[in-house]
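Tutorial, part two.
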Amino acid sequence: MTDFYDQLVNAIIRPPRGNYDIRELGPKSFNLSGSRCKRTDFEVVNKRGLTLQCSRYVPLVRRKKMPVVIYCHGNCGSRIDALHSVRILLPMGISVVSFDCAGSGNSDGEYVSLGYFEKDDLEAVVDHLRETEEITRIALWGRSMGAATSLMYGATNPLIACMVLDSPFSSLKTLSNELVSKMESRIPKMMVGIGFRVVRKSVRNQAGFDINKLEPIKEAPKCWIPALFAHGEQDDFIDISHSEKLSGKYSGDHNMIRMEGDHNDPRPQFFYDSVSIFFSNNLIIENDFDDEENPMIEEEDETRLHYQEGRYMEENGYDQDLERAIQMSLLGFEKKEGNITNN
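Running the prediction step on this input gives:
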């Protein structure tokens, strides 16, 4: 029984961590839809003094100031998960920023909190981007934990232009009870309530937050930012009813996409088409592209290649095979395997 509760606690605060080699982000300069683009890595420090690893993607030829979409990953994810958004958004003239939340990927931190502390990580990234004076409007794109994080942060910052919320949960307490209840075959039904209290205490002692206080449903009525909810109809981790409850309480303009698929299944093309239209309508504003106030600029491609052992290699060690692999990923060749616990 103790092992079962330990597993459930770990599923909340210490799921499999999405560590990666920096080379998996691909080359810092790449071609996409006929344009040369670049990735710039940077670091941000959050309120708790933890360093977050971040990346920004932009075309080399672009407006001086661009709209940006910040991608927020799930609880087993990392900034690598944003590659599909890069493929969609850069050709639209929208830059992309991705980051590893504290406790995720290559950032500092031991535990995740399913949005409780991650919303502060997102705030740190937003503040950094505002300081660069290289952006016009900011939008958010979150999946699962990242969607809950985006909604809770959006309720505190009405300047966010819009949000895509893919598979959020409405209440961590509700979700935890659902997960415990699914295990009734392993524990007596009368023990479900006791089980939740055990999990709540363990999470609070180890990770420093209270499950009962993580309730995006209470923030939904406070949020007026245009939102696009999305959820898989066969999601057996976070039931689609969570998105239905959130959209029902949401104050701002919103729509909801229902899709075939489970929690971690690849999203269908019509989802990405809907996302593209949504961001186009809310981020690309004609006045932001005035030639005098926001001129076109062209950055030099700083990636230098040299010949090594009969093959061209970048100075940072990325070879042409890896560049081709990343470009295929950017062009939509999805991996078939997914992490079944990626919240």
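Confidence is low (pLDDT under 50) at residues 304-319, 332-343. In part three we will examine how such features are distributed along the chain.
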